[in-house]
Amino acid sequence: MSESSASSTPLAAQGLWHTYGERSALRGVDFTVETGSVLGLIGRNGAGKSTLIRALLGLLVPSSGCTLVLGEPALQLTDRVKERIAYVPQQPESFPWLTAVQMLEFLGRFFPRWDGDFARTTLSRWEIPAGRPLARLSPGERQRVELIRALACRPDVLVLDEPAAALDPVARRELLREVALRAGENGCTVLFSTHIVSDLERVASQIALLHEGRLLLHCDLDATKERYARLWLPPRHAEAAPGAALSRRVHGDGSLTLVVGRGARGEWPAAVQLDGARLDALGLEDLFVEIAA
Amino acid sequence: MNARVVFALPWRGQHQQQPWVMALVALGMWSGAALVLHTAGPRWPAGWLAAGVVLAFWLAAMGVLLGSTIRLALEARRLCLPGLERALAVSVVLKAVALLTVTAIPLGILSAHPAPLTELLAIGLAAGFAYAVLPFWVVVLALILLPLVQGLAAALHWRAMAPQDPHFVVVCVAFVVPAVLLSAWNWRRVLKRAHGPIGWLSRPIMLFSSWTGPRSSFLPMSTVLSLAMGRSGLQVPQWLQPQVALRAAGPADPLRGLRVALGGPHLPLTRTSLLRRVGAPAGVIAVLALVNLPLLVYQGRVSAVVRALLALVPIFGLGIVLMIGTLMRATHLLKRWRLAGGERAVLALLPRSGTPTEQAARLRRVLLGGNRLRQWPLIAAAVLTEALFSHDLNRTLLLALVLGLAPAGEAAVVYSVLGRVSVPSWGYGLMTALGQGVFIAGLNVVTVPSGPALAWLTHAVFAGTMLCYLGFATLSGLGRRALRNLPHPYLGLS
Prior knowledge:
- The complex is a heterodimer of chains A (293) and B (494).
- Chain A has 293 residues and is an alpha/beta fold.
- Helix content of chain A is 31%, strand content 28%.
- Chain A folds into 2 domains: 3-212, P-loop containing nucleotide triphosphate hydrolases (Rossmann fold, 3-Layer(aba) Sandwich), CATH 3.40.50.300; 225-292.
- Chain A is built from 10 helices and 14 strands.
- In chain A, strands 6-7-8-3-9-10 form a 6-stranded mixed sheet, with helices on both faces. Chain A has a 4-stranded antiparallel sheet with strand order 2-1-4-5, covered by helices on one side. A 4-stranded antiparallel sheet of chain A has the order 12-13-11-14.
- In chain A, β9 and β10 form a beta hairpin.
- In chain A, α4 runs parallel beside α6 (139-152).
- Chain B folds into 2 domains: 1-223, no CATH class; 294-494, no CATH class.
- Chain B is globular and about 70 Å long.
- The A-B interface holds A 50, 54, 57-61, 75-77, 79, 82-83, 85-87, 89-98, 102, 105-107, 109-112, 133-136 and B 231-234, 241-242, 244, 246, 249-252, 257, 260-261, 263-264, 267, 339-343, 345-346, 348-353, 356, 486-488, 490-492.
């Protein structure tokens, strides 16, 4: 990573490995999030999404590799960078002894760009009980309070770990609208992980697919349909299957199903031309299922 | 379900390592008791009683564990699991009988007093079970009335309360039968209300810490602690909810800000809230004093009893308050630091909160520096009381050493947590069990009349205390060193 590009890149990881005991959660992830993009990080449970996010933000020490936030090493962030980032964890459980109003008032004192009006009006608009301790709020209410906290500090980089997991459809729609608004009007860079493909299609400009700790694809959302497809090969051509496939399934009769991508010059693998081979376009959800199943 | 599965059922509701730890402790206690009975002889006529009392306390702890399976039964009822409730009830009865038999038979063979020993053990087991299963208010009432009954028995010269008396069996039956029957009745009553709210009137102490799920606490004390802390205030009545003093907490006053962020026992409270929270336990103490003191006066033995009480109550009381406070803070830190989505992540990314070195120093000041006010006055008061009443330098020094375990143990937990020293849950459990054991044994040694019979216990307490100090110092050292090498102190345990 060159110094100039690194300092302008909101989030970057290079050669990231992390293990929990015997289990590898991340296996050599190289990853950058471009300025102003809304990147949807998708993957199955246990794929390593939360670990990647926490490593990106310096909340854990990776086994190897490095991560940068706005050009600074994630484990040694200065106030200059901390003021510009916001993070909402998958299961927000912070400050259960405070009420929503107390928590926002307390944390607001640390952020110079804190938008108190936004915090107050959104609390009231989202009908969060202001005087009740956070411990007594429902998981959905708790998640919304955390989202208000993250948005009220007017971040340049917003990182959300499965932000819609506990939200009802209405709240989810509002959240996505807010994310799209922040990205569109303020140029905020957003990284969010999710299982819900429809959410991703609604707001993401880019997607990244993490599977068993490996980043299998990372591209523009619009390009996925063009760039990836499902290739079925009859048993007699199984030997001719391309080596560089994102997934490979062998059926009982010896036929093969693969997810293949276009090459550097936009061409499909040669096996597509074989007699009996079938190439199907894939929607985002089908692509995810084909790769991650 | 076969008999083996039914018998092992309650253990399935405990932490995985708990049965092994319990078995080890049981082995130690049984061996100790057997040794006392074997060696006591005529030089220590009350040796059998000492062994019996210690083992009765042990069986009381086992009774609490058996009673704590009410959580598992409740979950079984809520999940509509067929047969589990009945199997649990059978298993609890089988285990209680087995525990009593396995403990009483060898003691009976070794001792010349098998009947009163068995009665003592039965009382211990039933008391522990009732403590876990009876409604909380009944347990509190019983604890208040117990000294009253003892005082009354002394005033009326009713000797049947003493295990040496041949009529002690009447006391045993009068206690055990109602305790078991009432516990069984409340067990059924709680299960009947499984699908709705369980009111304060019938809720046992074990169900106050319901957030831990069907698994029971590692030690009975943990349940009391959980109750004292409440789940972030969930179970505490509205008027006792902590009112946070947020004024100036933030970059202007980072230490106060950190106390708000760390919460629990570190939370800065408003004056009113502080008064309410201190007032409630003070009220309970006042009621206890009001109930007991007139009776002591009536006995006509005021000077002797009051003198004994003046020494024993403050030392024991201060020691227990010290221990509970320490465990509360350590448990709170461990719990919060394990959460990936807790305040640790917020603090790590909070601007204007200082450099990592400053953050670590502030954490140390809040987590340990505050102990100068929380712990040292209690230790000083207890040691001074001991010095005034015992006039025995050795005992006073031993008390100081034992009480010093509280700050040393807390420092070990704080440094190991902040420094991310890998200590498994059972390691903390074992450390707590050993620390608590030595602590309580130490308080006993310095408050009961000394004599040659207790010399071995004094030496054992001294050795145990030194062992604890060694363990705590090692853990603190490892944690300190690791903390210095971490990029920031909010990396946590997960």
